[in-house]
Specification:
By secondary structure, the protein is of the alpha/beta class. The protein starts with a helix and ends in a 10-residue tail after the last helix. The protein is globular. It is built from 11 helices and 9 strands. Strands 1-9-8-7-6-5-4-3-2 form a 9-stranded parallel β-sheet, with helices on both faces.
């Protein structure tokens, strides 16, 4: 599938009726498994990738080169559209955000997210005007090109629990050229419903991070267009690993293998030849 075809598919998912789930993968192997299961698009997770290389999910843990190189392996491993977690754009300036999006497109990604968190614990969120300028710069570089830009308002993850301010930012990000908006950590379904009602672009909702979870149907009824899972699938995999290890250490038994994915199934998935659409 060509890059343009992937983008057209991805764009259609956001414009058709109903909601779709876009799970987050962290390497080529997880990509092949989830591709085989019937999802229509995938996202990367910087958290899951960080865990896989023994690092924390934190600013500065992974470089732009590391993130995009891993994303390129994911792109090669699937024919599905892939949207990348581009963190804060790998730099505070609007120019840094634009450069990150430019590179993401060169690596075959058809979407990506830029967040307004700074990585500075003393000033965790970019000031409003600067945050909007960063989104505008990213939007300008992808203008008329096959890339859907997601802009994230991160306040709820950093103790800034002001729904009105979140909505103000998301509305401004839409005006600045974002195609999708996203406010991870919203407290409940009422807040999700309010955000979806008040912003003019498709809204991504994160499940599996914290607090109460809602079904796909409930989120669709609230107005969500897209659902992602962040690093929670990666954490679920690590949880299974830890439970298996505890069984062996604590009980001296190996019953965990009964629920493990069969080697034959894994071998069939990993043997599939995927060609990269990068540069098409």
């Amino acid at each position: 599938m060509t890059l343009q075809a992937k983008f057209d598919t991805f764009r259609t998912l956001h414009s058709r009726d109903g909601v779709f789930v876009m799970p987050n993968v962290w390497d080529a192997g997880s990509t092949r498994i989830l591709t085989s299961m019937g999802f229509e698009a995938l996202a990367t997770t910087s958290a899951g990738f960080a865990f896989s290389v023994g690092k924390r999910d934190s600013f500065g843990a992974l470089s732009r080169k590391e993130i995009l190189t891993n994303a390129s392996r994911i792109v090669v491993a699937t024919d599905l559209p892939v949207s990348a977690d581009l963190e804060e754009g790998f730099g505070a300036s609007p120019e840094a955000c634009a450069k990150t999006v430019e590179l993401a497109m060169a690596f075959g990604l058809v979407g990506g997210s830029i967040e307004d968190a700074t990585g500075d614990p003393d000033h965790p969120i970019f000031d409003f005007s600067h945050a909007v300028e960063r989104v505008a710069a990213a939007a300008e570089v992808k203008k008329d090109r096959p890339f859907l830009l997601t802009a994230r308002a991160e306040g709820w993850l950093y103790g800034d629990n002001d729904l009105a301010e979140t909505i103000r930012r998301l509305q401004a990000f839409c005006e600045a050229g974002a195609d999708v908006v996203y406010a991870p950590g919203l407290p409940d379904i009422d807040a999700i419903r309010t955000v979806c009602r008040e912003v003019p672009k498709p809204v991504n909702v994160l499940m599996g991070l914290q607090g109460k979870t809602y079904s796909v149907r409930e989120l669709e009824d609230a107005g969500a267009k897209r659902i992602s899972v962040g690093g929670s699938f990666a954490r679920a995999a690590l949880g299974a690993l830890k439970r298996a290890a505890h069984e062996v250490l604590d009980n001296g038994t190996f019953s965990y293998a009964q629920e493990a994915m069969p080697d034959r199934e894994i071998a069939a998935l990993m043997a599939q030849e995927k060609s990269s659409s990068r540069g098409e």
